[in-house]
Write a structure and sequence with these properties.
Elements: H1 2-25, E1 53-54, E2 59-60, E3 70-73, E4 88-90, H2 93-144, H3 153-157
Antiparallel strand pairs: 1-2, 3-4
Length: 158
């Protein structure tokens, strides 16, 4: 008797699980806020998009190593351009800020290096002066004799 009712019971349980999965799968997820706000465009009207520049011989894809807003366009429709000619300008305020920060870090590192080098240079100068003075004292004691009764050059020659 148990086996006669088990199969329909399992079918009903499977159907309930499937219906529950479909209902949960159709729920709309909560909209997450972006972690970083998009850049604000400083212009009253603008056009954004990706494009292809068409050459007279073939399509040539262009790109830039940095993303940004195009602030100036230097060419017009049917203009002839040579390799290396600027086509447009991208807003570089962010890069200029990073450049100023990098220059400040370089100057800070140079100042720290100068602080480290200064005591060693002063110390070396002091050591050199001290060695020079000791050498001179040694030469004078050999010439004139040690005041403490040490040997004199005249004593050493005989």
């Amino acid at each position: 008797m148990m086996s006669k009712n088990a199969l329909p019971l399992l079918a009903i349980i499977g159907l309930a699980v499937a219906i529950g999965a479909v209902i949960r799968g159709n729920e709309t997820p909560a909209i997450a806020l972006p972690p970083v706000q998009a850049a604000k465009v400083p212009f009253a009207s603008y056009v954004a998009g990706a494009g292809i520049i068409e050459a007279s011989t073939e399509n040539i894809a262009i790109g830039t190593p940095v993303a940004g807003i195009v602030t100036a366009i230097y060419v017009k429709w049917n203009d002839r351009v040579n390799a290396g000619d600027p086509l447009f300008k991208i807003d570089d305020r962010d890069m200029q800020g990073q450049l100023l920060l990098a220059i400040a870090k370089v100057k800070e590192a140079e100042a720290n290096l100068a602080k480290v080098k200064l005591p060693t240079q002063v110390g070396r100068r002091f050591e050199c002066r001290e060695l020079d003075q000791r050498t001179r004292q040694g030469e004078s004691s050999l010439r004139c004799g040690d005041k403490r009764g040490g040997p004199r050059i005249s004593d050493c020659s005989s």
